[in-house]
Amino acid sequence: MKEFNFERFSRQLGETNVNIKSAIVGKDAFIVGLGNSAFQDILFRARINPKRKASALSEEEKHAVYDAIRTMIDDRIRLGGKDQFTDLYGSQGRYIPVMGPNMNGKTCPVCGSLIEKMSLGGGQVYFCPTCQK
């Protein structure tokens, strides 16, 4: 992941005039390999609303998204993958997503607000309306 540095990430994010989901996930994303589940965790950790435009993020918000991506990937690797999957040896992953369908009907673990769901970019996105501005 040494090629994934903040300067490059920030520049590409700033040049992308689409919502943050399209910049990070999907066929037109400049980051390859992240799915909707990862995206939801990243934005929750960074406290960014999924509707935000990538190019409108402040430097501080870009840092928050960058740090959240690195942390989420490191956590998933360290914990053997997502809890819904097993590895080649049959060991269950231990990474439990912080945000996503698992939060349907639940409250935010940070502020207690009811988690909301919206359609965005061809899928469902769960988020905290209070924490994610």
How is the secondary structure organized here?
Blueprint: H1 6-14, H2 20-24, H3 36-46, H4 59-78, E1 116-120, E2 123-127
Antiparallel strand pairs: 1-2
Helix pairs in contact: 1-4, 3-4
What does this structure look like?
- The protein is mainly alpha-helical and 133 residues long.
- The protein has a domain at 6-98: Helicase, Ruva Protein, domain 3, CATH 1.10.8.50.
- Helices cover 34% and strands 8% of the residues.
- The protein has 4 helices and 2 strands; from the N terminus they run H-H-H-H-E-E.
- The protein has helices at residues 6-14, 20-24, 36-46, 59-78; strands at 116-120, 123-127.
- It has a two-stranded antiparallel sheet with strand order 1-2.
- A hairpin with a 2-residue loop joins strand 1 (116-120) and strand 2.
- It starts with 5 loop residues before the first helix and ends in a 6-residue tail after the last strand.
CATH class of the domain at 6-98: Mainly Alpha
- CATH architecture classification name of the domain at 6-98: Orthogonal Bundle
**What shape does the CA trace take?**
globular
Mind describing the biggest β-sheet?
2 strands, antiparallel
Mean pLDDT: 92
Strand content: 5-15%
Q: Span from first to last CA? A: 28 Å
Strand order of the largest sheet: 1-2
Helix content: 25-40%
Uncertain segments of ≥5 residues (pLDDT<50)? none
Rg, Cα atoms, Å: 15 Å
**What series of H and E elements makes up the topology?**
HHHHEE
**Helix/sheet category:** mainly alpha
How many distinct helices?
Answer: 4
Total strand segments: 2
- CATH names the topology of the domain at 6-98 as Helicase, Ruva Protein, domain 3
